[in-house]
Design a protein that fits this description.
binds N-carbamoyl-L-aspartate; 2 domains; globular; 427 residues; 8-stranded parallel sheet; TIM Barrel; Urease, subunit C, domain 1; alpha/beta; binds zinc ion; single chain
Length: 427
């Protein structure tokens, strides 16, 4: 099995080259590779820019337990359509991924039914209850690449401290969902004048800021790596920037949707825009963009959180939090960061491919001879309208339905094979 990509452009380079892939390895990168074409799939890739396969360190695949929302099969198809060759799945499943049996089950299913590489993230505490720490060493041996109680915050600082001490020994990051639910409970959107006007209850920025500050201090106390999930506020960005300047082991992610949208999107009361953390103000959004540009925010992660249409097509106050992001991530991030002139495509690749792998020690993220063939091919010029009906994800809960974007994922090569080609999922 071999693939030859003809006359393509590696992101950040201005010459056209051919890329030869044999089995699951990039074997040659050269101008005009001449080779006996038997058994080789030759692709005219002259319209495409090639990225190292995107890696999403924060998705909810919902399996086991919530297969009506998403399955490993549907979620990884959605990932492939979005250009992701790797996804890291959060443990808020049922049963919770807090024991090695579930981690092994997820890995087995991913191997047999998944179309991209899946790296499970295990829970920090049993059933994500914030009390009893899981068997973190065993979970790491089973294949967990990180730990998180995502959806919940460990409110007991002593429990978080102890977990960080274990994580340091195991050399894995703890991924912190920063939300003091004592402040946020009952809220549906960002707290402020708009929430008041719409008659919706608010979630103040401090809900997040307080825990970001605490976890930075616990990282300092334990000399351990804390990764802050889905940063949404200006103050969080400032705290993380200062922590990095102080030499602490803090990394952070932002979602594509928080980079492009603000609370104003809630004016139509669409439950598909109800997400946690909530969309904030333009001032916060500008701070997030600045944080990405100056390196305070290391990477982009979708927080892909599918729900069924039945769950979402209710009044906003009754709808669950979360939106799908895999299939729009590249286009949305490109619009927010590249079309606006803030980043180059090459810098975007760092945020989508290289840094998330570095944080979780997942190999790859580079296009070089001898490296694994995980590649994402995009047409940076294609204009299109988002149609959630076409999503591979079972979740159609996106705020971007009908949005026009320029730049679209056209092909995804996972372990040396096309999983998506010409914009279509391969059978
Ligand atoms: N982001 C969300 O709004 N929801 C996530 C949980 C989470 O990441 O907090 C979910 O699992 O539905
Ligand atoms: Zn979360």
């Amino acid at each position: 099995m071999a693939i030859l990509l003809k006359n393509t452009q590696i992101v950040g380079e201005d010459r056209q080259v051919d890329i030869l892939i044999k089995d699951d390895i990039i074997t040659k990168i050269e101008k005009n590779i001449s080779i006996d074409s038997t058994g080789i799939e030759i692709i005219d890739a002259s319209e495409y820019t090639v990225f190292p396969g995107f890696c999403d360190m924060h998705v909810h695949l919902r399996e086991p337990g919530y297969e009506a929302k998403e399955t490993i099969a549907s979620g990884t198809k959605s990932a492939a359509m979005g250009g992701f060759t790797e996804v890291c799945c959060m443990p808020n499943t049922y049963p919770c991924a807090d024991n090695s049996g579930i981690i092994q089950q997820i890995k087995y299913k991913a191997h047999t039914e998944g179309v991209v590489n899946v790296h499970p993230i295990a829970a920090i505490t049993k059933e994500r209850q914030g009390k009893e720490i899981t068997e973190m060493d065993e979970l790491t041996l089973s294949g967990a690449v990180g730990f998180s109680d995502d959806g919940n915050t460990i409110m007991d600082a002593k429990v978080m401290r102890t977990a960080l001490e274990y994580a340091k020994m195991l050399d894995v990051p703890l991924i912190s969902h920063c939300e003091d639910k004592n402040l946020s409970n009952g809220g549906d959107m960002n707290e402020g004048a708009l929430a008041m006007m719409l008659g919706l209850s608010g979630i103040p920025n401090q809900t997040e800021d307080i825990i970001v500050a605490r976890d930075i201090m616990l990282s300092k106390l334990t000399d351990s790596h804390v990764h802050i999930a889905h940063v949404s506020t200006e103050e969080s960005v400032n705290l993380i920037r200062q922590a990095k300047a102080d030499g602490l082991q803090i990394t952070a992610e932002v979602t594509p949707h928080h980079l492009l949208l603000t609370e104003d999107i809630l004016e139509n009361f669409d439950p598909n825009s109800k997400v946690n953390p909530p969309f904030r103000t333009e001032q916060d959004r500008q701070a997030l963009l600045k944080g990405v540009v100056d390196g305070t925010i290391d990477c982009i992660a979708t927080d892909h959180a599918p729900h069924t249409p039945d769950e979402k097509n209710v009044e906003l106050t009754n709808a669950p939090f979360g939106l799908v992001g895999l299939e729009t991530a590249f286009s949305v991030s490109k619009k927010a960061l590249v079309d606006s002139g803030l980043l180059t495509l090459k810098e975007l690749a760092t945020k989508l491919s290289y840094n998330p792998r570095k944080i979780l020690k997942i190999p790859g993220g580079e296009i070089k001879e001898g490296k694994p063939a995980q590649l994402t091919l995009v047409d940076p010029k294609e204009k299109y309208l988002v149609d959630s009906k076409e999503f591979q994800s079972l979740g159609k809960n996106t705020p971007f339905d009908g949005f026009e974007f320029t730049g679209r994922v056209k092909a995804t090569i996972v372990n040396g094979k096309f999983v998506v080609k010409d914009g279509k999922l391969q059978k």
